[in-house]
Design goal:
alpha/beta, Uracil-DNA Glycosylase, subunit E, globular, UDG_fam1, Uracil-DNA_glycosylase-like, Uracil-DNA glycosylase, DNA damage, uracil DNA N-glycosylase activity
Length: 221
Amino acid sequence: MNVNIEVGWKTQLKSEFEKPYFEQLANFIKEEYSKNTCYPKGADIFAAFDYCSFDDTKVVIIGQDPYHGIGQANGLCFSVNENIAMPPSLINIFKEIETDLGIPFPSNGNLQRWAKQGVLLLNATLTVQAHQAGSHQKRGWEQFTDEVIRVISDKKENVVFLLWGGFAKKKGIKIDKTKHHVLTSGHPSPLSANRGYWFGNKHFSKTNDYLKSKGETNINW
């Protein structure tokens, strides 16, 4: 199957795109997009990979589902387009960055600027039907994104994985911790953050400290 994705990722994932489950997934997605309103728009389904090449990837943040509200999802986990109000989890992410690094709140929630610096913003499921959270789960995306994580773990070194909440921690269970730096905390959603499981994790300064220790450039959060 010919998938339009950044060439480095295409090389690494070529065998995955040729597996029967992926063909079934692709057929399901085509049908869903033809019959229903789905997010993100078709051209942005693989945006996380297009903005952050395989070679450039040095930080991975794992989300669950794309946002399912009108115009929110842009193919990068936790990110929204410039003209869209920031969801609560993203607000809490920026609050932690402000406390941790003293970086003021940005004017918008589009995280393409992170992706271009080597942050892979990976949702476990890459598509969703409008207003139907989790509607495209268990169709094959999880198997595909498990393979993405495995490839990064196996083929690269010194990548920082940020695993926020129980779902992301389970998703990252096979990361080789002898080669990579794994940071875990509660999820930035209000339910978790307000119970004390998010704020103060200092993941953004810790990420930069680790990258610096390995001779890599910092992420400008």
